[in-house]
Amino acid sequence: MKKTILISIVVFITACQPILMKIYGIKQPKVENQASIQKQALKYGLDNANIVTVAAKDFLHEFWGKNIPDCAVYDKDQRYIEYRQTDTSCNAGLFAFIPALNATTTYHQPPAPSLKEELKKFRDMQGKELGELKKADFYLLIYFTVWTGKLNKDHVKAWEDLAKANKNANIHIIKVNLDFQEYWNETERNDIIKALSKKK
Fold it and tell me: What pTM was computed for the model?
């Protein structure tokens, strides 16, 4: 079943071919916890601060259709900002978009749930609900997993570094881990794994 789960999940990685899976160290997804997530984050030079997870009841909704790793950008009022030029654009545009973020610029904001709504789905790495966010010009949600290997360094760390280096805006980074969580109820976790194994 594990092989089926991996095949199902990998379809969400942009332009990922089998040879790239080996080169980038993409592994079998497994159940993770705070210690294992932080260990891998440190391995790829990620800041261990502001890592959140997704509640089991919201996981599949958050996971389906995402290119992992991926990002979502919100303004100071927690309204969604679309960084992609078209519906078929990949996340490569973030490498130019993040350093260009400026508090005085107006951005395209299509109808979408607010960050406040999104945050209701997130938990800390022990499963507890999150508190209030600190004020910022922009909020950057970076979606990542342990099993995507070096993509965490090539994309997640790069986006994080670009946001920290931006001198024209105060950007609050939230890294959203999309691995299976140890703190989830066992029945819910098994249901999620089954659902992913059936996805073709």
Answer: 0.85
Q: How many domains does the chain have?
A: 1
The Cα 154–Cα 150 span in angstroms is: 6
Cα–Cα distance measured from residue 19 to residue 22, given in angstroms and rounded to the nearest whole number = 5
Give the whole-angstrom CA distance, residue 166 versus residue 23.
31
What count of Cα atoms within 13 Å lies in the side-chain half-sphere of residue 158?
Answer: 16
d(CA 110, CA 46): 30
Look up the domain containing 60 and give its range: 2-198
Contacts of residue 98, Cβ cutoff 8 Å, sequence gap at least 6: 71, 140, 159, 162, 163, 166, 171
Number of C-beta neighbours around residue 74 at 10 A: 23
Other C-beta atoms within 10 Å of 82: how many? 14
Residue 82 and residue 111 in contact, taking contact as beta carbons nearer than 8 Å: no
Judge whether 136 and 190 are in contact, CB under 8 Å: no
Local structure of residue 129 (DSSP, 8 states): B
pLDDT, tens only, 102-146: 999 999 999 999 999 999 999 999 999 999 999 999 999 999 999
